[in-house]
Structures are given as structure tokens and as C-alpha cells.
Amino acid sequence: MRIKFKYSMTFEKADQLIERYYEGLTSVEEERQLQEFLSQADLPLKYEPEQAIFGYFRPQKQNVTRKSFLRWSGVAAALLVGVFAIQLFNDSNLSNYAYVDGKKITDMDEIKLHAMASIENLPTGQTIVEENLRQVSSKELIEQQLNLFSAFE
Amino acid sequence: MRSIKIYLFLLLLTGFTCIPSIQAQSDLEIKKVFDRYGNQKGVVMVELTGEMLEGYDFSLFKSLMIKENPEAADYIRKSLAKDETGAKKVKQVVANGKATSIYLQLPPKGKYHRLILFNEANKPEHVITLIYIESKDDSEDVLKLILKKNK
User: Fold this and answer.
1) Got the DSSP string for A45-91?
2) Which residues in chain B are contacts of A81 at CB distance < 8 A?
3) Over its length of 153 residues, how does chain A's per-residue pLDDT go in tens digits?
4) How far is Cα B114 from Cα B137, in angstroms, rounded to an integer?
5) pLDDT digit string (tens) for B35-94?
6) Residue B97 domain-assigned (yes or no)
7) Which among B12, B61, B91 has the least Cβ separation from residue A79?
8) What residues in A contact B53, CB-CB < 8 Å?
9) Please, are residues B132 and B116 in contact by the beta-carbon 8 Å criterion?
10) Are B17 and B110 in contact (CB under 8 A)?
11) Which of residues 69-88 of B touch A (CB under 8 A)?
12) Which residues does B80 contact at the CB level (< 8 Å), separation at least 6?
């Protein structure tokens, strides 16, 4: 009974081809054979460097990569949902409203009126200048009065 | 694996940069003022987001008008003293040793320029006005616009 070899070529033949490959002596056909051999599953560990060179990785590692990709994708998706939930929560909080004497108002026209009223309460640049001048003049007045008293000393 | 981590990092970065508006105010002392007085009697509190105020390009507008409450004015002045750190004091009026008007230009947070405007008026009645503004426009331009429109 003849036992069929599991791989596309014997390890001896593969080793020879790899050796020739490193020496740059392989033909196109030999490289194709080598590529076919290295692309097989369950090769001994010693062929791992060559598999890497030819762009193949051990199937177990593929599984690990796929599993970690799925895991990280899951984490990313969960965080994405979380971020959008926070966004949604904040958006709902960023509504337009006013409180007058503790009562909530949602009528936009009324809210705008209150907003404009608060802006109108602010003194203009002119008012501030006038106020400052008034302060300066009162200080000067006080100083003048104090000077009067000091003259009597 | 590395590319997945980078993807995840970028995703989170994008997500968290989308929600800065409400957080921009959270580091300020005046937030406490809004929380403390916003729902009280004799107080009007307004919160507007987006371009809701015609003629103004604000991302967030919050205001408080408090009547006949001098204690609130002192509390706000204390809060502003803390928020002044790193801020540019654009305008200030002092009367009888107390600041009655303070305009603060805060350092920008993210893409938002921030302004705090405070005023205490005694005539014809005692009214405190506190305004907090966030805008993508330069805060100096916003301030000019407010003062110009308010003439």
C-alpha cells in the first residue's frame, strides 16, 4: 500500500527549493511550486519564515487576528454607540428655554424677548466711560477738599 | 492590531470633540451661579443654543436677571474673581469700592470663544444681569456687536 504524502512536495524537495531560492537560482516554475507548498496549512514550524516571505501566515494566527479584530470591532461599536448616546443626551439638554420666577418657558418668542432684555440691561461703552468719569471726578473732588484741610495745618 | 487601535482612538477623539459645548462652561464658577439662582423667584434665566438670537451668531447664550438681591451680586463678584484667572478683563466699573460692571473675555475653549458680562444697576431698581456667551466668532467682535446694538 502506498501512503500518499500529505503535502504538495516532500520536505526534502521543499528544503532544496528554499535553499535554491535564497541563492537566487530558482526558476519561475520552481518558485510557483514553492509558493504552492508554502501556502498549505499545517506545515512544520520551520517553514514559518519562508511562509512570511511568501506572504502566508499560519492558520492559527489568522484565527487569532480575526478574533482580535472582531473583539476590537465590538469594543469600537459599543463605544461609538456610547458616544452618540452622550451626544444625544447633551443635544436634548441644549434646548432653548427660560425660567421666570422658577417657571419654565419654552415659547421661543418670549425666550428671545427675555434674552434681548438681558442684553439691553448691559451698559454701553458710552455709559461705562461716563460712569468712570464720574468716579474720577468724585475722587478729584475729595482730594481737593482734603487739600483744603491740609492748608490749615 | 495597531491599525484597529488607531481607528478606535480616532473614533473616540471625533466623538468627544463633538460634545464640547455644554462642557465649556462646566469649568467656570459662574455655572454655580446659574444653578443656584436660575429657578428662584424674582429671577429670569434664559438659555439659548445655536443661532436662535437674530443678528447674533452665538453657539450658547445664557443669561440671568436677578432683582432686588444684593447678596447675589456679592456671590457673583466672588465667582467672577475666580473665573478671572487667565481671562482678559475688557471693561470694569467700580462704584463705592465694588465692581458694578465686569466684562470678561475668557481664553477660548476648543473652537469656542467665551464671554462673561456682568452688570449691577441700582436705578430705577436693583437688577443684576449676568450673561455667558459662547461663540465661534472672536469674542471681541461679539462684544462690539452687543455694545453697538445696545445703544
Assistant:
1) GGGHHHHHHTT---HHHHHHHHHHHHHHHHHHHHHHHHHHHHHHHHH
2) none
3) 455 567 778 888 889 989 888 888 889 888 888 888 888 878 888 888 888 887 765 555 556 667 777 777 777 778 778 777 776 665 555 578 999 999 999 998 899 899 889 988 888 765 555 555 555 555 555 665 566 556 554
4) 9
5) 999 999 999 999 988 766 667 778 889 999 999 999 999 999 999 999 998 898 888 888
6) yes
7) B12
8) 112, 115-116
9) yes
10) yes
11) none
12) B29, B30, B99, B102, B104, B116, B118
CA distance B138 to chain A (A): 18
Shortest distance, CA B85 to any CA of chain A (angstroms)? 23
Residue B51 lies in a domain: yes
Binary contact (B101, A128; C-beta < 8 A): yes
Tell me the residue range of the domain where B85 lies.
24-149
CA distance B71 to B79: 13
Which ipTM score applies to this complex? 0.78
**The three grid cell numbers given for residue A135, joined into one nine-digit string:** 468716579
In a domain, B4, yes or no: no
Domains of chain A: which residue ranges?
A: 11-57, 98-151
The x, y and z cell numbers of residue A2, run together, are 502506498
Min Cα distance B48 → chain A (Å) is 5
Nearest partner of B58 among B120, B119, B151, B149, judged by Cα: B149
Residue contact B7–A122, C-beta within 8 A: no
Interface test with A, best of B44, B61, B90, B115 (most A CBs within 10 A): B44
- Number of structural domains chain B divides into: 1
CB within 8 Å: A118 and B19: no
Using the Cβ of A128 and the Cβ atoms of chain B, whether some distance falls under 8 Å is answered with yes
Query: Is B6 inside any structural domain?
Result: no
The CATH code of the domain that includes B104 is 3.40.1000
To the nearest whole Å, the CA of B86 is away from the closest chain A CA by 23
- The answer to whether residue A66 neighbours chain B at the CB level (below 8 Å) is no
